[in-house]
Amino acid sequence: MSSTTTQQGPQESRVFTPPAAFVAQATVAGMDAYNALCAEAAADYEGFWSRLAKENLVWQKPFTKVLNEDNAPFYKWFEDGHLNVSYNCLDRNLQNGNANKTAIIFEADDGKSVNVSYKELHEKVCKFANGLKSRGIKKGDRVIIYMSMSVEGVAAMQACARIGATHSVVFGGFSAKSLQERIIDAGAVAVITADEQLRGGKQLPLKAIVDEALALGGCDTIKDVIVYKRTGGNINFKEGRDLWLHELVANQSAECEPEWVDAEHPLFILYTSGSTGTPKGVQHSSGGYLLWAALTMKWSFDIKPDDVYWCTADIGWVTGHSYIAYGPTAVGATQVVFEGVPTFPNAGRFWDTIAKHKVSIFYTAPTAIRSLIKASDVDAKVHPKNYDLTSLRLLGTVGEPINPEAWMWYYTQVGGEKCPIVDTFWQTETGGHMITPLPGATPMVPGSCTLPLPGIMAAIVDEAGVDVPNGQGGILVVKRPWPSMIRTIWNNPDRFKSSYFPEELGGKMYLAGDGAIRNKDTGYFTITGRIDDVLNVSGHRMGTMEIESALVANPLVAEAAVVGKPDDTTGESICAFVVLKQARPTGEEAKKLALELRNWVAKEIGPIAKPKEIRFGDNLPKTRSGKIMRRLLRVLAKGEVITQDVSTLENPAILEQLKEAS
Ligand code: 6R9
């Protein structure tokens, strides 16, 4: 079991109650309201979800069945209902008076911004959707989206949804090889990309990486590469395959009849890291997924018509799906879509942008908060106190545990002690928030994600699936299916079952992959970190096995083991122990080879997977049966003394060698 680096715990005693002014206007106001919703779900689970699905979504054909458990764990929700996700996110807003409301404030890397109304977004999406149709792309086809943050990126997702194509967004920081693997696994028919992306003043390639991915081979299903012109940088164009987005949409109609799909129709596949093997294509539904994306906007973010909402995630991650592309539009919100990075032109960028657009709800990752705390310690000019942040009324975090110090800084320095903080625990697989304070109800404790949302039957069990008492740590599970849950792993239903509904736990509980503990008195949940071989670096999930496979694919490498190491800024960092085929390098040679291997991993997976540290050994610590003892490597990575029993170790002398960075 790995543990996280933060020192939050169920023993934290500070409690912050939501400000009265906030409670007075909140969607879920007070704990009685929260408890009433929980009681409603407990009394009639299907009735509860049925009511919410009718109230929050527009159905072209109403559903009559709520939950189908016949083929558990392949649950079905609202299965005979028909809807279209893009209709719910766009057309609905044109009909209810939001046509001229700003949907997106696009804040570009260079500080320029443009507003796009719901009417304009609708038009963009319809033209895009008609363009896709003109290329023969249809319902059920898979489309890869490899783009940076842009209005076009959101429009690409919505356009796929409009015609019933299943999108798979690949984060723009992934390598050609990662992109190729995803194209092949998804069997995609098209890639939507941009010429280049702009980040921190730099022009970085996107189209060139798509070319490289396709040249790696095996991508014969791809017929079209659609290119959005972002920078106008030089790119290669392959006749007959590549086409400009602006040319594709130029003569398209601004109306596109939505493709009505079953609630279970796959809206998207999003690849995420697991403990073993290649990344898993997490498949989400249309109806259940959208219900939760919309509803959590109202419950967790208390979204109101006048809010300016900003989620700093990238559309390449699930947070950018549920809380940029779909949730905010489904509730008719105005949101900032940000192209840049938090430190450009300086580390005051977030605060400056909040002031500029009068952001009222701000949602970011603990890793960003920690790096901005550091930056403002070094340079007082970028401290939030220098900016007018009075527009803020609610703050949120996601992606990893937040340590109480960072929470307190966020609360006092950014939120001016008047904004509730929602520490939202959830995963790619859960589709939306699972455990989080409700901002107008739940008393907050720094470092705790507090209580499950109404209808989410989260619990903590032991390895046999038996509930553990509060105060005792265990495995986080969800005991009942919920509408926005993962439906399957694309192409791999067996892996879906064994990863998330293991027989050891009876085959019916959803296994989150995280450890957790509940406070003895309050029952509040605190996430203690992944219990599998998944690392969380800056809120990005990385499988240790994936990085190990990348390392051993290098001709110089004989063997590699990767572990997480606590890191003040990124939460965890990647530490790799490597055995080369040649003699163990030292000094300058070790430095040179470490750099080479880091760049190799960037090429194989993407820069986010680069090990921060590489240590070379003649061997790795193994049991006599040949198993690498990762728990010892974790201790070594931390620089701590090994106190565990090493008697089962075949080669104890190796520990000395691996103690320090080469
Ligand atoms: C949304 C997202 C999921 C993993 C999850 C857990 C960690 C996310 C958290 C949190 C503590 C929070 N995680 N939110 N840990 N507190 N509020 O991040 O999805 O990329 O799939 O990562 O992130 O370990 O299992 P994803």
Automatic annotation (TrEMBL):
Positions of the Acetyl-coenzyme A synthetase N-terminal domain: 34-89
Query: What reaction(s) does this enzyme catalyze?
Result: acetate + ATP + CoA = acetyl-CoA + AMP + diphosphate
Domain AMP-binding enzyme C-terminal stretches: 546-627
Cofactor(s) listed? Mg(2+)
SUPFAM superfamilies recorded: Acetyl-CoA synthetase-like
* Residues reported in the UniProt entry to bind ATP: 399-401, 423-428, 514, 530, 541
EC annotation? 6.2.1.1
In this chain, Mg(2+) is annotated as bound at: 552, 557
In this chain, where does the modification N6-acetyllysine occur?
Answer: 627
Q: Which PROSITE patterns match?
A: AMP_BINDING
Q: Give yes or no: UniProt keyword Ligase.
A: yes
Keyword set, alphabetical order: Acetylation, ATP-binding, Ligase, Magnesium, Metal-binding, Nucleotide-binding
GO MF terms, alphabetically ordered: acetate-CoA ligase activity; AMP binding; ATP binding; metal ion binding
The UniProt record gives the binding positions of CoA as 199-202, 319, 538
Q: Which CDD domains match?
A: ACS
Task: Consult the record and explain the modifications the protein receives after translation.
Answer: Acetylated. Deacetylation by the SIR2-homolog deacetylase activates the enzyme.
**Family annotation (Pfam families):** ACAS_N (PF16177), AMP-binding (PF00501), AMP-binding_C (PF13193)
Q: Which GO terms describe its cellular component?
A: cytosol
User: Matching InterPro entries, A to Z?
Assistant: Ac_CoA_lig (IPR011904), ACAS_N (IPR032387), AMP-bd_C (IPR025110), AMP-bd_C_sf (IPR045851), AMP-binding_CS (IPR020845), AMP-dep_synth/lig_dom (IPR000873), ANL_N_sf (IPR042099)
List the GO biological process terms. acetyl-CoA biosynthetic process from acetate
Q: What does this protein do?
A: Catalyzes the conversion of acetate into acetyl-CoA (AcCoA), an essential intermediate at the junction of anabolic and catabolic pathways. AcsA undergoes a two-step reaction. In the first half reaction, AcsA combines acetate with ATP to form acetyl-adenylate (AcAMP) intermediate. In the second half reaction, it can then transfer the acetyl group from AcAMP to the sulfhydryl group of CoA, forming the product AcCoA.
Q: Which family does it belong to?
A: Belongs to the ATP-dependent AMP-binding enzyme family.
Q: What is this protein called?
A: Acetyl-coenzyme A synthetase
Can you name the source organism? Rugamonas rivuli
